[in-house]
Specification:
The protein is mostly helical and 453 residues long. The protein has 19 helices and no strands.
């Protein structure tokens, strides 16, 4: 009989997996920033494939990472796998199976990123490191495409940005970062770091305005509206929002406000009217095909399901909700809603549970802020995503992984289990969790060892 391996201490786990954490940050940066588009030597090797796939292989077998049982304690994990499975199954009835297969390969790669984040990000320091890397990747794109901020009177595109190349897509991704930036500013230990992160937040806001994206603007409003709603200091929040509005009025060009006016009257602008036509086509696809027309097949099916007044050209859905409705049907839409709003609801339920726990007030407040700020990012994604076909982008997977990690850490620190929302961990394990929260390193192996005693 093989002897059982000794459980790693928190220090051993952190030291043993540190290189995997930095490796993960590089993978995330390459996925979002695509530096090879700007630096030719990076194109010699397919780093955007080699880096994540090699890390994935190591992640499956490395010790000291978040156990699979912990990952699947969060019910949202299984729904993410089911979502990818639905994309795969849609190849069976898709009109053009190659389109569905290409989408499946894309989302499978993003599922791998979800697994890597869920396994490797085991401490708040690592969670904040991922937040920072996502922000740095977007700042890199802004630096390489400065017209986004310096010339807001014109609509500019991100060179080599792949899924972030369009200004609308870039604005949506920035909306997700707003809540993460607020969290980094709140968690910063020094005044200098707080000022830095609030300054970064300001740059991200200017970049959203610079894209002239209506969906991005609504998503940004949703982020700050949610943060104000959850803030215990609403008067200060009103003052901060007022200052931001004044800044936007001074910075934004006239063309930005002209585009915003079309939100309430879409008939004034052709692209806004085109979205409504695409949404109607998505509904028609689902009514005619309960399981949808197949992943990636919305543009191909659009001519058949468009209304008489719609453009003849092919058109995508311009909404992740109507895209999934048309391509994966009503069940697919329920899956997407479960992943987006289910994550927000899981955060809210855990927040209410934490508020009732008899734990250190500072720790409780920090946990509630983390859940609220990450929920603000979900709000930005949910609202901005209503106007963009981003259902197969990495956002669902990356944001889902970050929220899973945040909930796991918050629950562990309070002695709760995500498997059952009301379950309490043994007192000995709860004490270890509180001790781990106070230390810079938090290991799940110590929790398992305590529970087995």
């Amino acid at each position: 009989m093989r002897p059982r391996k000794r459980e790693l201490t928190p220090e051993e786990a952190e030291k043993r997996t540190r290189i995997l954490y930095w490796w993960l940050l590089v993978v995330i940066f390459f996925e979002y920033a695509r530096p090879a588009a700007y630096f030719a030597p990076l194109r010699i090797l397919p780093l955007n494939s080699l880096l994540p796939l090699s890390l994935l292989m190591v992640t499956f077998f490395a010790r000291g990472l978040r156990p699979w049982t912990k990952i699947f304690e969060d019910s949202l994990t299984k729904w993410l796998f089911i979502y990818v499975g639905a994309v795969f199954l849609s190849m069976m009835w898709a009109s053009v199976q190659m389109y569905a297969f290409n989408i499946f390969k894309t989302v499978l790669g993003y599922l791998f990123i979800f697994i890597m984040i869920a396994r490797i990000v085991t401490t708040r320091q690592r969670l904040y490191g991922v937040f920072g890397t996502l922000i740095v990747a977007h700042l890199f794109l802004i630096v390489m495409n400065p017209a986004i901020v310096l010339n807001p009177a014109e609509r500019n595109y991100i060179v080599g940005g792949t899924f972030l190349g369009d200004g609308n897509d870039f604005a949506l991704s920035l909306c997700i970062l707003l809540g993460l930036s607020v969290q980094l500013a709140n968690a910063a230990e020094s005044k200098r770091k707080k000022i830095f992160y609030w300054g970064v937040l300001g740059i991200l806001v200017l970049a959203v305005i610079g894209t002239q994206s209506r969906g991005g603007t609504l998503g940004m409003a949703a982020v700050f509206g949610y943060l104000w709603w959850r803030s215990p200091r609403k008067g200060l929040g009103v003052l901060a929002i007022g200052i931001a509005v004044v800044g936007i009025l001074l910075y934004a060009p006239d063309v930005y406000f002209e585009r915003m006016r079309t939100i309430v009257n879409p008939q004034q602008e052709s692209s806004a009217e085109g979205r409504l036509q695409a949404w109607r086509a998505g509904i028609n696809m689902a009514l005619d095909n309960a399981l949808g027309v197949g992943a990636g097949n919305f543009p191909h099916a659009f001519p058949k399901y468009r209304s008489a007044t719609a453009p003849v050209r092919w058109m995508t859905a311009h909404s992740m909700y109507f895209l999934i409705l048309g391509e994966l049907g009503f069940l697919g839409l329920l899956l997407l809603l479960r992943l987006v709003f289910g994550n927000a609801l899981a955060n809210a339920k855990l927040r209410e549970r934490i508020a009732q726990e008899q734990i250190d007030p500072a720790q409780r407040d920090a946990s509630i802020r983390l859940l609220n700020n990450t929920n603000a990012s979900v709000a930005g994604f949910a609202v901005a995503g209503a106007f963009l076909s981003v259902a197969y982008y990495p956002h669902v997977f990356v944001l889902g992984a970050l929220l899973l990690c945040a909930r796991s850490m918050v629950a562990e620190s309070a002695g709760l289990s995500l498997a059952t929302a009301k379950a309490r961990l043994p007192a000995r394990r709860r004490a270890l969790a509180h001790e781990g929260e106070a230390r810079p390193v938090q290991s799940f192996s110590s929790s398992r060892r305590a529970a087995s005693r």
